[in-house]
Amino acid sequence: xxxxxxxxxxxxxxxxxxxxxxxxxxxxxxxxxxxxxxxxxxxxxxxxxxxxxxxxxxxxxxxxxxxxxxxxxxxxxxxxxxxxxxxxxxxxxxxxxxxxxxxxxxxxxxxxxxxxxxxxxxxxxxxxxxxxxxxxxxxxxxxxxxxxxxxxxxxxxxxxxxxxxxxxxxxxxxxxxxxxxxxxxxxxxxxxxxxxxxxxxxxxxxxxxxxxxxxxxxxxxxxxxxxxxxxxxxxxxxxxxxxxxxxxxxxxxxxxxxxxxxxxxxxxxxxxxxxxxxxxxxxxxxxxxx
Length: 290
Prior knowledge:
Elements: E1 6-10, E2 31-32, E3 35-36, H1 37-47, E4 52-57, H2 62-68, H3 72-80, H4 84-89, E5 99-104, H5 111-116, E6 127-131, E7 135-138, H6 144-155, E8 158-164, E9 174-182, E10 185-193, E11 204-213, H7 233-239, E12 244-248, E13 252-255, H8 259-272, H9 277-285
Keywords: Nucleotidyltransferase, Transferase
EC number: 2.7.7.9
InterPro entries: GalU_uridylyltTrfase_bac/arc, NTP_transferase_dom, Nucleotide-diphossugar_trans
């Protein structure tokens, strides 16, 4: 049985939509309640059995590396102060069984280029995950990457995470054409990056979860940029589309790359936080006449 043990996190973008907050702080380090966006993504991967986390980053993102490193002084202080829950919250995810690797991307050239930066770490024949931390998932039961690994193992295909997007917003995404479906698993005939609304082949959009095989690297063309003059991963997928399935995951996605998505995520995760939900709910009831 195949197994996915590595996840790639492309985090080299500038986060300009959140300026001035992201002038010195990576957007992936912005908190949802009390935890950085990127930590939710790493925890999702860890819960799915992944033990090696590969960040495609650049020099202004050092805070991400610092966050996942050990802070022994702070940890010891929390232990000494009997703040055991807080101490546990800052321990390295997975302890000694996990590995964190950071690869510098010289300049943001598109998602395809970012993924290609990890090629030397992925072994021949290996399947690996790609997680875009901006797409924060809220699930009941199995998380999205766990669901996708199950699909990967059942069909022995690379897997793209899909979500139904109605209306003209579909033109903001990569969109798949579907040949046939088995419940939430879609067999694909084509994929198009950011099509015009009237030209979209379906209402199924590609969102920030993928499982690739190492073979994807030979289809990433760094010499010929695609849409928006970027090296699009969509173009690489399209060249090998018969070896992919699309999966409509169970869960709710928040686009934390946008201000409104970020605010919605804080609201909904705040309402699920056991220490906050009662007081927060009471506060929101007082705002019902907005």
